[in-house]
């Protein structure tokens, strides 16, 4: 039951992030993977897309969220508790 609650909470927060910034589903998945500490290569493998596509998604995310790097992106993720939750699990 606890695992289900945590997954449900993370999904809700991802949905809020997606809606707040009008991100696509794939962009939202990329943000989640960045918050989890994945490299571009690891994201590409996990999402079954090329690294070039990952970089394109990251560029689009940066433009939408008006950030310049992953550190600033992670700062926004803190508002949705994605980062804090993922770090506490490690």
Distance between the termini: 20 Å
Total strand segments: 0
Order of helices and strands: HHHHHH
Percent of residues in beta strands:
under 5%
Q: Helix count, per DSSP?
A: 6
Give me the oligomer status: single chain
Could you tell me the radius of gyration in angstroms? 13 Å
Shape: globular
Low-confidence runs: 1-9, 83-90
**Proportion of helical residues:** over 70%
Largest sheet: none
Counting helices, strands and paired strands, the structural category is mainly alpha
Task: State mean pLDDT (0 to 100 scale).
Answer: 80
Question: Your description of this structure?
Answer:
- The structure is a single chain.
- With 90 residues, the protein is mainly α.
- 80% of the residues lie in helices and 0% in strands.
- The chain has six helices and no strands.
- It has helices at residues 2-21, 25-35, 40-47, 51-65, 70-79, 82-89.
- α1 (2-21) packs across α2 (25-35) and α3 (40-47) crosses α4 (51-65).
Short description:
The chain is built from six helices and no strands. It has 90 residues and is an all-alpha fold.
Please give a handful of descriptors for the protein shown.
globular, 6 helices, 90 residues, 80% helix, disordered N terminus, single chain, mainly alpha
Topology:
Layout (H helix, E strand, L loop, with lengths): L1 H20 L3 H11 L4 H8 L3 H15 L4 H10 L2 H8 L1
Helix pairs in contact: 1-2, 2-4, 3-4
């Amino acid at each position: 039951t606890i695992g289900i609650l945590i997954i449900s909470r993370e999904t809700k927060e991802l949905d809020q992030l997606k809606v707040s910034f009008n991100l696509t589903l794939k962009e939202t998945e990329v943000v989640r993977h960045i918050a989890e500490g994945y490299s571009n290569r690891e994201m590409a493998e996990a999402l079954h897309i090329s690294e070039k596509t990952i970089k394109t998604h990251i560029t689009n995310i940066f433009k939408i969220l008006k950030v310049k790097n992953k550190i600033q992106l992670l700062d926004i993720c803190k508002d949705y508790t994605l980062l804090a939750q993922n770090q506490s699990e490690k």
